[in-house]
Input
Amino acid sequence: MRFVWSGLDLDAGDGAVDVICDVSRNEEEGRFEFRIKVENRSGKYGLFDTEYPKLSSLVRPGNGAFIHPGGNWGGEKKRKPYAFKRIYPDFHVPIQLAAYDADTGDGVMMAALDADARIKYVVSDASFGLSFLVPAEGAGLPGAHGTPPFAFALYPYHGDWWKGAKRYRAWAEKAKVKWLSKGRIAGRKDFPKAMRDAGLWMLMTDDVPTNERNVNLTVDKVAGRVPISVHWYNWQFNGGDPIYPKYFPAHPDFSNAVRRCTAKGVRVMPYVNARIWGHLDPGWPQAKRYACCQPDGSVYVENWRKKDFSAMCPFTKFWRDDVVSVTDALFGTFGVNSIYLDQVASMVAVICYSSDHGHPVGGGSHWVDGYRQMVADIHRRYPGKPLTSENFCEPYVDTFENFLLWCPNYDTDVPLIPAVYSGYIETFACIATASYSMEAYRAVNSRALMWGNQGGWCTPGILKDAHAEKFEYLVKLAQIRGKNLEYFSDGELIGEVVNKASAPMLNLKWIRWGSMIDQRVPAVQAMRWRSPAGKEMVVVSNSSDNEQPFDGGEDRLRFKLAAGEIRIVKP
Ligand SMILES: [Zn+2]
Output
């Protein structure tokens, strides 16, 4: 089906614009495809963006659920319409899809089939509607026209959102999207073993001597049972937040502290910000021309801890080389095991309208391409040294060796990230404080493990004797993961195994930005994984303080779980 509007006027009588919209059915792939083309013959006006398709009421309000991109795990399931307009890529829109489960057992998934991860908005409205808004390349320049060189797709499915997620995974694999260029972890010779089994993560944010003391305490508590990985903040001389990107001189004890910790087998990963430049830095006037620009030519300004910063344009060699030079010092001089590059996978892509940076003005894939180039430059200099980033978004699946999922957990989360990308990525961290009830602590941490995650990212407070039960629970989870890496690291998360036995819901409190909020999750949950060799594993967790029944619909999946038990079932 084709819709054509031809000879539209921009100035009276100029007939400068044609708009052509196509809708077609792709029988082989089981999807409908939408394409838009704008032809512009004006020498005065330019296309700024296109918004297409705009679909409304994908499910009837009150009769279905919207699985929208966002949250710690890539998606959240809401029964009420949720209006937003967010830029992809960003941790709020880490994967360019949304799904709608009707209460009839059917649903639809909508996706942008863009193998180059161009900047685009995903727009949702208050009537379960969805659209994609794509900034034009050369946005607003006279004569600019636009044909997003990819289709938007609508996939109908029988079942729930898992079906939609798996259709998107199949598209990404078949389309050879650039972020799957290195293939699955199981087949990657370049993937660092230490990041596949990072064991228990700790978060150290004190001064250098205190961090080292806390590392030693952790080593004593763990006593060799699992590897220890440490995310190390405040290694620069003055502590606190530096005026990025200036970190040196490092704290005088940092080099020796790293040497002593790594000699004990601890993996040390310092913090670096790879996105912003502080205006108080003396180098800012020279750096400013390489920052991302707004349409009026001014730089974007962000305020972090009452100081002004600007997002740098990663397409510029100037910014890429600056970050590379910081990693040169950390890998080359200080001998750290890996480096955390903050904000890259988390923060929203900034639409750069500079005409001096060598990329198209406005839309395109240059934001993602610049960061992929920056990290490739570091990997080329330090092969086998892992790099990680904050939160997750898909254009960097093959770029970073781990992603820090540090945001709040909700009972509305769905594991969209591992549903689509398990076997290709590692993720780590699980927010939970020592003040949680034991049931709340088990529920959030075991769910993260069942979704493939490396646990912990705890502050040293968890090492106190009063919290021994919680700390030992994390060690147990890390041991279970370490013994089953062919599933949790290399395998694919196939889906949830519904418990047909009668187990209660737990009313719990989990933390959200400093407040404890009510959550309601099943006492017993189970997930099915498949290894690259095709073997299956079911992991079942009972988070409650009582024995609970489990019935996964097969003889081997009918049993009782002791209080707090996690059971691995294999053929
Ligand atoms: Zn730029």
Q: What stands out?
A: Residues 292, 313, 315, 352, 354, 357, 359 surround zinc ion (CB under 6 Å). The chain has a mean pLDDT of 95.
